[in-house]
Write a structure and sequence with these properties.
single chain; alpha+beta; six-stranded mixed sheet; 24 strands; about 25% helix
């Protein structure tokens, strides 16, 4: 792996033979796990400018029409976030000489407040080729990390590390992005809000109140598109560059049915009711998924880009027989992508219900792929892979020149990506939206076996019993198994909620920089043995605080909570009254606690008791400074380890849903989650 310094460059071909497609990761963190930034990509011609606004890719324009660029989104790390970008270098137009890789912070934040700011580049097989750490970010709000550029037929990378005081707007302007010079978001020259411009020419990152104002009463703009809280590029408040095509999404409200009664069932393209065995479920699920991937380019590309596949013509196959010693093997599926006369191939191994992946089976497919020159093996199951802990251990023959990447995909992630496209981001035409809806309906059918993580494992009951009778000791491997499955559950909760909201929902890690994830899980397992509690935090885009989920195995209670900061201006009594007024429709049993400076806790009470007397939230001691408020709901947790009505997994999912829809949406500036009728419409 090649370590870069500022100003250095390297030929990608000198580092790997598999560079037709590459994945660039930009990452950062902090000691608290907080702090984030947004990536952006600019495609530049020989004059060092974008050809049009379509060459500027950011969170509201994440995919290039030719498939050469795709922003893959954020992945939580031990101490922050990692943003990944997929590049199909064979698809980059010949008019493009350079590709600039940048990131920007918003709301006045600076990169000097973050730690571990770095870039990494991996080849199509997932092997990391180079790394560039930026140690002198300092007080800048935007940074060019590096650039990919052509030299003859070769692609090279240059480590740049250049900061911009003017932020994303200044960076974009320097490279020719068409930005209106008027005041931000439709303001008139005198600083007052004017009518929105009608010329939808520039990509714009909308502006909203800060988290403190949004928490307790600031009125959000009526023209806020996606991407709230980020820096605003001056100009039209549309969230889409002028060259973007209109996308098709399905209606969020269910149409009135023509059925005579509820016993009439809609005809489905992919029926699941007749499936009787796990083998039938695996075969049907594989065929359904792969066929939709091939027919809906946006969806197929969304899933395969993360695995280093190029953008191109995709074909998918099932039940292919491949030679392997004396006994041929039949992987569940094969994905092939053709681009510029080259083929990218991945073997697919599928499991449904609670079936576990078999190491010997996956190892055989890795060996077959290596011998045949295939690029990847993709495993697909209800399980969720954890950072630093592969689901299946395989041996890699270092003597082989050709390397095969092993990737894992959860059925929950497949459903998440389908929902994001048809409910929020849109696809090319109505037929594609309908196909994705049929796929989503199939995955959610009780008989499909594709329900995501749904079992806390055999250690769940012994650990609960050990906590109850105080016999569970530190170092017990069963406690570690429960902690790992809790992390899988939280990751799945994030996928479900993010799919419903159309927003980024990520686990919020608060570990010290550089801690190995497996070491951290061991510490959490020891803590579970001591206090009998599982706890995680989730960061939801556009919410004023972090949602915390805690399961107390001693009391059998689930607690969901959020802390919101106190406003910088105004009087404490006004804050309390405004908060209670905002929560008028929240559950009466909502607990509200005033957060104050110092170790001593502030006043607290239920919303039902505080409604007539909001002043009870104010500390009695004169001079006590209020720092914020904590809102909490308690719920009994399920006892069984599965996803049944009385199961622990179902109870966690229900607790998060109740808290978000009953409490968080009443805080200003927070997107409202669609109802279940809306998410199943059509």
């Amino acid at each position: 792996m090649h370590e870069m310094i500022k100003g250095s460059n390297v030929s990608l071909a000198a580092l790997s033979e598999n560079i037709d497609s590459v994945i660039v990761s930009l990452s950062w963190g902090s000691s608290t796990g907080e702090g984030d930034a947004d990536v952006s990509v600019l495609l530049l011609n020989g004059n060092g400018k974008v050809r049009s606004d379509a060459d500027f890719h950011f969170y509201n324009n994440p995919v290039a029409a030719d498939g050469s660029v795709q922003l893959l989104g954020k992945t939580p790390t031990a101490d922050g976030n990692e943003d990944r970008i997929s590049f199909d270098l064979t698809a980059v137009s010949a008019e493009i000489d350079r590709i600039v890789l940048a990131a920007s912070r918003y709301e006045g934040a600076r990169f000097g407040e973050l730690e571990g700011v770095k870039l990494a580049l991996a080849d199509g097989g997932g092997e990391e080729l180079l790394r560039f750490a930026i140690d002198d970010a300092d007080a800048v709000s935007a940074i060019i990390f590096g650039e990919l550029y052509r030299r003859a037929e070769d692609w090279k990378f240059r480590a740049v590390g250049q900061g911009y005081d003017a932020g994303l707007a200044g960076l974009a302007t320097d490279f020719g992005v068409d930005i209106d010079d008027d005041a931000a978001a439709g303001e008139t020259p005198d600083g007052t809000a004017g009518d929105a411009p009608t010329d939808a020419t520039a990509p714009v990152l909308p502006e909203v109140p800060g988290p403190q104002e949004a928490a307790l009463g600031a009125v959000p703009s009526p023209r806020q598109p996606e991407g709230e809280g980020r820096e605003t590029l001056p100009g039209n408040p549309t969230a889409r560059p002028r060259t973007a095509k209109k996308k098709v999404t399905l209606p969020k409200a269910a149409r009135k049915t023509l059925a005579e009664n509820e016993s009439w069932r809609d005809a489905r393209l992919f029926p699941a009711s007749a499936l009787k065995s796990d083998r039938e479920r695996e075969t049907r699920a594989t065929s359904v998924l792969l066929s939709v991937m091939a027919q809906v380019p946006e969806f197929g590309r969304r899933l395969t880009a993360a695995f280093g596949a190029p953008a191109g013509r995709m074909e998918t196959f099932t039940e292919v027989t491949l030679p392997h010693g004396d006994s041929p093997r039949r992987p569940d599926g094969v994905i092939r992508v053709a681009r510029a006369g080259k083929l990218w191939t991945a073997l697919v191994e599928t499991k449904t219900n609670g079936s576990a992946l078999k190491a010997d089976q996956v190892q055989a497919y890795m060996d077959i792929a290596a011998r045949r020159g295939y690029e990847a093996v993709i495993t697909l199951s209800n399980d969720v892979a954890l950072e630093g802990s592969p689901l299946v251990e395989v041996k890699i023959d270092g003597r082989r020149k050709h390397r095969v990447a092993l990737w894992h995909l959860s059925w929950a992630e497949v459903a998440h990506q389908a929902q994001m496209l048809i409910r929020h981001e849109g696809v090319g035409n109505a037929a594609h939206a309908w196909l994705l809806q049929e796929l989503l309906h199939y995955l959610r059918h009780e008989n499909s076996g594709c329900h995501g993580f749904q079992n806390m494992g055999p250690a769940w009951v012994p650990v609960r019993n050990g906590i109850d009778d105080e016999t569970l000791c530190q170092g017990d491997p069963r406690a570690l198994e429960v902690v790992e499955n809790w992390e899988r559950l939280i990751r799945q909760v994030c996928l479900r909620l993010g799919g419903e909201l159309g927003r980024k929902v990520l686990p919020d890690h608060r570990a010290k920089r550089g801690i190995d994830p497996t070491v951290l899980r061991a510490r959490l397992a020891d803590q579970l043995c001591l206090d009998g509690r599982l706890q995680s935090s989730v960061r939801i885009e556009q919410t004023p605080g972090v949602l915390t989920i805690s399961a107390d195995l001693r009391t059998g209670k689930l607690r969901t909570s959020i802390e919101i900061p106190a406003p910088e201006q105004g009087y404490p009594l006004s804050w309390a009254k405004r908060l209670v007024r905002r929560l008028a429709e929240a559950p009466a049993d909502l607990h509200i606690e005033t957060l104050v400076d110092g170790e001593k806790g502030g006043p607290r009470g239920t919303l039902e008791r505080l409604r007539p007397e909001p002043a009870d939230l104010l500390p009695k001691e004169a001079g006590t400074q209020i720092t914020g408020f904590r809102l909490s709901l308690l719920k009994s947790m399920g006892s069984s380890r599965g996803n049944a009505e009385s199961g622990f997994i179902r109870s966690v999912d229900d607790a998060v849903n109740r808290f978000y829809t009953g409490v968080v949406v009443h805080l200003d500036g927070v997107p409202r989650a669609p109802s279940r009728a809306e998410t199943t419409a059509g």
